[in-house]
Amino acid sequence: MNIRLLFACAALAAPLAHAHVTLEQTSATAGAYQKLTFRVGHGCKGSPTHTLVVTLPDGFNGAKPMPKTGWALSGTANQVTWKGGPLLDAHYDEFVMQVKLPASVGKHYFKVTQLCDQGRMDWDAVPDASGAKLASPAPFIEITPAVAGAPHH
């Protein structure tokens, strides 16, 4: 195998090997309806994922989760749960919902719990003033001010 091709493949795989649960959308407009895509890049220390629970921050309303084949959906006003799978540690997947965003601008953090056959990961750490690297960072979205007269759909 060509050594350059080998390094290229390794470079592409590296981000997934160290991936956390992240949110595809990095920013959105206050008060709008928004698709949120939570990306799961690995299991729990090699163990397959069977449950993903996303807790919405205050002000996020009307969550409509997207069904996934092989996963059961349940939820409350501020939480959505996908249960099933399993999602093997070596694989990647996305869990999607639509919500109405709050009017408050700034970063909003989601608590995500990933349950696996052996263990769990709580993606709930929020940065502080020190700027230290977080072991289990919570996914977030930056809400920006709405433009006067712009539609919110």
From TrEMBL:
<dbReference type="Pfam" id="PF07987">
    <property type="entry name" value="DUF1775"/>
</dbReference>
<dbReference type="InterPro" id="IPR012533">
    <property type="entry name" value="YcnI-copper_dom"/>
</dbReference>
<protein>
    <submittedName>
        <fullName>YcnI family protein</fullName>
    </submittedName>
</protein>
<feature type="domain" description="YncI copper-binding">
    <location>
        <begin position="20"/>
        <end position="75"/>
    </location>
</feature>
<keyword id="KW-0732">Signal</keyword>
<feature type="signal peptide">
    <location>
        <begin position="1"/>
        <end position="19"/>
    </location>
</feature>
<dbReference type="InterPro" id="IPR038507">
    <property type="entry name" value="YcnI-like_sf"/>
</dbReference>
<feature type="domain" description="YncI copper-binding">
    <location>
        <begin position="76"/>
        <end position="143"/>
    </location>
</feature>
